[in-house]
């Protein structure tokens, strides 16, 4: 079993209880849309939301993006029905299941075992991947073993900042952002001179640890939500930080954040141009029997080739996906007009 290499630059959250948002989701421009049965759905709406999601999976055209479903927590009585009903009734149209609040490898194995049984019983051809939310203290403490739990089905680790903050009893209420409470002061200067404060990033450690665990096991690390969707600059800053720490995508809790994530996690034109030059120079070096060369005063070697090939493969994948999205939007507009 091998999971396909999917784009994860932007992952749009869509409440399963909101039929209007479900209808619009396939053309939102996100690489991944996850239909939410957990936190975004009130308890009294859980059953209807599940039915809405099954209908959306079966009736809507998801060819322009990947689609996953966030099930309810394994400690709730909604969970098993989420897995059984959704996969039995719409499994052929589902790319992945997102498991919330994973605390150990056993949680992953439980869902994976259920999927194996349902896929066999329903003759589902393409295996359904698993995305895992690391959003509790226990999950972070066990993140390395979680990342190793089921290599045949695991695809991504996602940092769930809000529940993680609650789990460690952090005093912040700023979902995914920074705060002046996490800062250091310079030493006292001359009498009366103001002391400077330098803000820190309270999420650096958990994101970095999760990203290392993911990359060490061939998984994709994804940063979770940024709560203030009226602050695009703050979102972009958080996304760039996550990208520097190794993440290859970020959640969008509002459609306006999708394009921001796509921009941050899409290689810039000048980077693509230089990458092509790297491959050209290394090809010349190889023909001349040289193992490394310099380009613009910087050393490039075999490691540079691997990075360049990965980047250009991603660029090609983005181009293919954008073409499919444009075609899907045109078809929808033609049908509506």
TrEMBL record:
Alphabetical list of Pfam families matching this protein: HpcH_HpaI
Cofactor entry: Mg(2+)
TM region(s), chain numbering: none
Protein keywords: Magnesium, Metal-binding
GO MF, one annotated term: catalytic activity
SUPFAM superfamilies per record: Phosphoenolpyruvate/pyruvate domain
A GO biological process held by the record: oxaloacetate metabolic process
Domain HpcH/HpaI aldolase/citrate lyase: 10-255
Protein name, UniProt field: Unannotated protein
Species the sequence originates in: freshwater metagenome
